[in-house]
Amino acid sequence: MQDHVHMLIEIPPKYSVAEVVGYLKGKSAISVARQFSGRKRNFNGESLWARGYAVSTVGFEEEQIRHYIKHQEQLGGKGTDEDGGF
User: Fold this and answer.
1) Integer Cα distance of 4 and 7 in angstroms
2) What is the spatial distance between Cα 57 and Cα 25, in angstroms, rounded to a whole number?
3) Which of 15, 23, 53, 68 is an active site residue?
């Protein structure tokens, strides 16, 4: 599996994309550190996630994107599915 994560999430207007991504990256990094490093506190000087992220809005193609995310392991990193979509 590639070293990135695809998610399809709906963010309420009162939250910014940066807030939500920061929260998800922060909480998941803490969880991974506790689970695999056996630590009870945050780990200093180490990082799980890259600094950046990519975001796109979804309109009518939501189902196509859902399908891509659900089946990305079977795609083997090709970047497109058999229908020529994502």
Assistant:
1) 10
2) 19
3) 68
DSSP 74: H
pLDDT tens for each residue of 3-28: 777 888 889 999 999 999 989 888 88
Question: Angle at Cα 24 formed by Cα 21 and Cα 25, nearest 5°?
Answer: 85
Residues whose CB is less than 8 angstroms from the CB of residue 5 and which lie 6 or more positions away in sequence, other chains included: none
pTM above 0.90, yes or no: no
Is residue 53 annotated as a catalytic residue, yes or no? no
Cβ distance 51 to 42 under 8 Å?
A: no
User: Three-state DSSP class for 55?
Assistant: coil
